[in-house]
Amino acid sequence: MSDGNSGYVTGGEYNRDSNYIPDRITADGSGGWPVEAGRYRLVVARACPWANRAVIVRRLLGLEKVISMGMCGPTHDERSWTFDLDPGGRDPVLGYERLQEAFLARFPDYDRGITVPTIVDVPTGQVVTNDFAQMTLDLSIEWTAFHRDGAPDLYPEALREEMDDVMQRVYTEVNNGVYRCGFAGDQAAYDTAYARLFTALDWLTERLSTRRFLMGGSITEADVRLFTTLVRFDAVYHGHFKCNRQKLSEMPVLWAYARDLFQTPGFGDTIDFPQIKEHYYVVHADINPTQVIPQGPDTANWLTPHGREELGGAPFGDGTPPGPPSADETVPADSGPGGLGHR
């Protein structure tokens, strides 16, 4: 989601700019953007936890052949995320070098952050939305005509009221809470942020000690949203963002829960640890002026047994896991657990 600002620490408490393009792609097309196979391109970066949500949900629901995916590199400058992983540094579908071009194609005077995930209308090359929270919910509730057979119900209607409350707390206290620690501009702001984060992690520990997933026996979008922060915790947030009361691997319940998800198709196979580390340690130069990327931690422990099956349930309920990712969307073998190389 990072927008390319050169300075992230501005003094006092960190407040996220949450003014996104609110357009939605809907089954009835009432907002001008109808659900349509092949029309839209999801632009993401593997490094970004907010984009990682969309990558996972798209995969779990089997929308890969319906919504194409463009991949930005792990770092960006003040202007924009860039397509430096693609031949010639251009997205092969949009023809853009920078995601910024899609925003300017629709809003010539756009002056806000250029964030991922973003959905782009391929025929016009214009941004549709970068509202990351609504985007993934709409993949579940508006794109049902294109879901794969056996796709999970990630936003069950009967659970939505409670689930919305859980997801809101996860967002404010954990997803954004780690950033509140990392970008705190003074000691008092950091101390408050640190206390809030670990209070929430203790609450999650208690909740997950008796149920396999956040809402019960099967995976929902709530788990996707928590996972993308937990999977980055030891590699980035513990040290870089000073979230260091404990490592995730020292919190037994959350560590086992995170490994359970990591080892589930559609979760761990979207994770590129070297890109994650390169993004945070290089882009946040005001926190890490040397831009040195740490070698550790060893990530092979993500593949160790988790034992969460004892709590019952099934990750996909009555459904089935997604198949393996396509060759062009597969994370390189040396970038997953145990892979310590840098790009």
Automatic annotation (TrEMBL):
Residues 294-343 are annotated as: Disordered. SUPFAM superfamilies: GST C-terminal domain-like, Thioredoxin-like. Keywords: Transferase. Glutathione binds at residue 81. The active site is at residues 48, 179. It comes from the Bacteria. Pfam families: GST_C_2, GST_N_2. One of its GO terms (molecular function) is glutathione transferase activity. This is Putative glutathione S-transferase.
